[in-house]
DNA sequence: TCAAGTTGTCTAGTATCATAGACAACTTGA
DNA sequence: TCAAGTTGTCTATGATACTAGACAACTTGA
């Protein structure tokens, strides 16, 4: 208890983390730059080095800094760090980075399941699907466009619902599903096509990260499958090496 | 850990306290009204009753609520709760209540110590004193006017210094005194006089609380003695019943 | 007067926070 | 190649936070 003597209800490591984050936000620590060493940070905040490490760990988890053993801890680039976990929520990831997430509905339509879509969703080929096109933004900058497919039978009027809530989490919540998780994720890359270029506000010829994924409910039942195209220059995916 | 599962670094009791304070600030809990019972609050926040009690204790200490055994916990009136402790700092008390403290210099002059002033300050009758008049405000509303006397020998040019720093704490700090405490406090009441009425933006005939107090340093040596006149309708003094 | 509901106080156990020290693993520059 | 400086990991200890249960002290209204 060195920063203030009356218990504040805010953990020391959190106060340190907030301090460093403020330093990054207001440019005192520039992107790519090396932070002071853990021992030096501990001295300036008058806390134990382990406390500093905990603060840095939370910042690293959120993608704001990156520690390099033997060298130092560096402020991450401006790219949005996008951890790929079984529990992946765009709004949470973007919000954790201190940016304002937003969803934008483009359009919805019905189509029949191709063999691949049917396999992903555990349906029969030709089953009725709802197809939703949407854009997701961070601080008004478009990050990715997504095409999402859902069973039209299980999620009637899913398109209209999504147009209102503009969030997949809220969409499935509308049908009583409180939780879901990422069952499979496949990442490739390509060149942006004309339609996506407009939607992403991206120049033609720029690379995109293409993510095919399927979400399942707590019972393992497939809910949605989607193909998202990320502006490569605006994100970086973090794969957990557990 | 019920409000969120990942450790946030913010103690539960603090989250509850912040929630209740927000409720008071935005009028969800009106002044004088009874808060929900501790058990009910515990249920809504999904925490233990003891955790709620800790949250309420901090709010009570800051004067925002008042607990009545057997009856309930009530939102305090709009009056500034002014705890009278040995360590009393206007700026801290007002700041703790979520208001912005400010000091205003009126004028300073020299005078000789009367017998009463000399006794309070541990000086000889007729010793040279500096007399400082000031107003203290909370959120731009004047709360009290004070007349402060100090030894002119120990605190040369105290008037000029105070005009700059506008804070007794900073004034004595200027002379190397890092800490002081309230040695004696005497409270009476009266009717505002014409001069104070203007300074307090108070109608003539309104009551004032008159507080005579003497501050001493850590060695018990008297530093300042003062007479403060508080607009009675804007404060209430809390006496610690320890 | 009494029952229900309220705040106050005590004990106890578990989890988290914070400190401390030591050493390993690694990078960098001389 | 080596020394200095860095992050990573381990053990250990005490303080604080949170939960849980029980009961006392008090207020209110029937």
Automatic annotation (TrEMBL), chains A, B:
<dbReference type="Pfam" id="PF07702">
    <property type="entry name" value="UTRA"/>
</dbReference>
<keyword id="KW-0238">DNA-binding</keyword>
<protein>
    <submittedName>
        <fullName>Phosphonate metabolism transcriptional regulator PhnF</fullName>
    </submittedName>
</protein>
<dbReference type="InterPro" id="IPR011663">
    <property type="entry name" value="UTRA"/>
</dbReference>
<dbReference type="GO" id="GO:0045892">
    <property type="term" value="P:negative regulation of DNA-templated transcription"/>
</dbReference>
<dbReference type="InterPro" id="IPR000524">
    <property type="entry name" value="Tscrpt_reg_HTH_GntR"/>
</dbReference>
<dbReference type="InterPro" id="IPR012702">
    <property type="entry name" value="CP_lyase_PhnF"/>
</dbReference>
<dbReference type="GO" id="GO:0003700">
    <property type="term" value="F:DNA-binding transcription factor activity"/>
</dbReference>
<dbReference type="InterPro" id="IPR050679">
    <property type="entry name" value="Bact_HTH_transcr_reg"/>
</dbReference>
<keyword id="KW-0805">Transcription regulation</keyword>
<keyword id="KW-0804">Transcription</keyword>
<dbReference type="Pfam" id="PF00392">
    <property type="entry name" value="GntR"/>
</dbReference>
<dbReference type="InterPro" id="IPR036390">
    <property type="entry name" value="WH_DNA-bd_sf"/>
</dbReference>
<dbReference type="GO" id="GO:0003677">
    <property type="term" value="F:DNA binding"/>
</dbReference>
<dbReference type="InterPro" id="IPR028978">
    <property type="entry name" value="Chorismate_lyase_/UTRA_dom_sf"/>
</dbReference>
<dbReference type="InterPro" id="IPR036388">
    <property type="entry name" value="WH-like_DNA-bd_sf"/>
</dbReference>
<feature type="domain" description="HTH gntR-type">
    <location>
        <begin position="10"/>
        <end position="78"/>
    </location>
</feature>
